[in-house]
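Example record used in the benchmark description.
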Amino acid sequence: MGQGKPMGRGTTLLPLLITWCFMVASVQSTFNITTILDGYTNFSVLNRLLSSSGIATEINDRQSLTLLAVSDDTLNAFINSNQNADAVKVADLLRFHVLLQFFSMDQLKALPTTYFSSYTTLLQTTGKAIYNGEESKLNIYNTLQNGILIGPALPGAASNATVVANITSSGVDISIMQISNILIPVGFSINGGDLMQVLMGFYHYNTFIRLLNATGVTDALAAMQGQGLTVFAPTDAAFSALSKPVESLPEDEQKLLMEYHVIKSYLSLDSFKHLVDSPLQTLAATLATKGYKLSVTGLLLQTGIVNVTIGDVLEDANPVAMYSVDSVLLPADLFSAADVPPSETAPAPLPKTNSKSNGTTPQAPSSTGSPVPVKNGAPAASTGTSGSALVLLLSLVFLIM
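Model output (structure tokens):
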């Protein structure tokens, strides 16, 4: 009786490789939140808001999360009492109702009853400085008397919401829990916020606030908020690093310096990323003062004296935006290189790019916020990761065979 051919290495690895190929290929979106909510008429308002704000797409791009759903009656009452709600703020509020962890009802009931547990929401992934810490988290309380309660992690929350029911769940990808009322982050305003109030909430912009008030620029900002503006807010440390205090300047120059930190139009962070060597008109640039332009390339602000990278998003509620900067913007109309410490003088201008070059727009350093986790461990814009891996692995299979 003849012996069979010994099993080769390729024969041994083939089943494992094929299995792994299908595992890689299967890490795709397994749900569509819009389609799921279409089956529940009591959540049609929530479904509409998620779609119109783009949050539905953010949810669909993730795995293992819990949506805290509020009924139509509750949402309609909230909308009717906030007729002037800002669209950006509405989107952030919706993100606050998405836990970046899957919970079934059994898992919630299994949480400790002696202490609360704190969990991150989708709000933290915006990268906005105001939501980098506990502000974007929710506490879950497993109480014996009142059931499961959920509320903002920061002290001072108006109220907690009660988990009413588990609407549906899909494996360990998504769970939808109905809650009794809307969750509002501590200090959150659904309407476009007053810029001075926003600044005071961070505790690191006292010098800027004082100078805005002293020069009267605060009144100009208040008058312009409905028309569109963008503010660059230097930190207290930025002012301390100057070779001489701003107060040593004549009063009219102090005012011009503060106005130089204001652009007379709304610019989202994404808008900056598309600008290349673009001169922007600041509030300081009037018919009487034709200078005071600010050149922008990507997230890099160039005054001719210093180059400064845009930092954290402090406020983004169209038509108003405000960003942190770690250096004072010194216009060449008022200052010279001698006024700036050597370590802060502007480097040589960046080479200009055109349609024939491969120049790239400089990007800001990574935000202090948590990185945005996405499926497959790749940026959401990338769509070919799993497919490429599958092709590569199948090629290896045929080589081994």
